[in-house]
Amino acid sequence: MSNLLSVVIIAKNEEQFIQDAIKSAQFADEVLLLDSGSIDKTCEIAKKLGARVENQVWLGFGPQKNRAVDLAANDWVFVLDSDERISSKLQSEIITTLNNPHVTDTQLLDSIIFLAKI
C-alpha cells in the first residue's frame, strides 16, 4: 500500500467479539485496541493477534474514539467497533482507496468513513 492504514477499536470486556474484529482488520499496517478497563481476556486475545493495546479510562464514545485516532501510528485511520467485521469486499475497496487516495468513489464513501489526521 502506498498509504499506511491503522484500524482502531475501542473496547471493554469484548472477549466474545474481539478476535473476529481483529482478524478482519489484519490486512492493515496497524491494529490498535484502546481498552477501557477490561477484566476479561479482551487485551490478552488482542495481543496474541498482534494488535497494539493501549489503555484509557472511559471518556465517552466520541472522546474515546478520538483518543484512539490520536494514538494511531498512521495518517489513514479506520474506526471499527468490536462487534463489526471488515468483509473481503470492503478490504479490497479500502486498499484501492489507499492506493488511489485522490479518486473519489461515492459508493465507497457511503459505506465507510476514513479519518485522516491533519
Notes on the protein architecture:
Strands 3-2-1-4-5 form a five-stranded mixed sheet, with helices on both faces. It has a single domain, classed as Spore Coat Polysaccharide Biosynthesis Protein SpsA, Chain A. It starts with a strand and ends with a strand. The C terminus is likely disordered. The longest helix is centred in the last third of the chain and has 12 residues. The protein has 118 residues and is an alpha/beta fold. It is built from five helices and five strands.
List the helices and strands and how they pair.
Blueprint (H helix, E strand, L loop, with lengths): L4 E7 L6 H8 L4 E6 L6 H7 L3 E4 L5 H11 L4 E4 L8 H12 L6 H6 L2 E3 L2
Parallel strand pairs: 1-2, 1-4, 2-3
Antiparallel strand pairs: 4-5
Question: Helix count, per DSSP?
Answer: 5
Query: Regarding CATH, which class?
Result: Alpha Beta
| Biggest beta sheet summary | 5 strands, mixed
Strand order of the biggest β-sheet: 3-2-1-4-5
Task: Quickly list its features.
disordered C terminus; Spore Coat Polysaccharide Biosynthesis Protein SpsA, Chain A; 20% strand; globular; 5 helices; 37% helix; five-stranded mixed sheet; alpha/beta; 5 strands; 118 residues
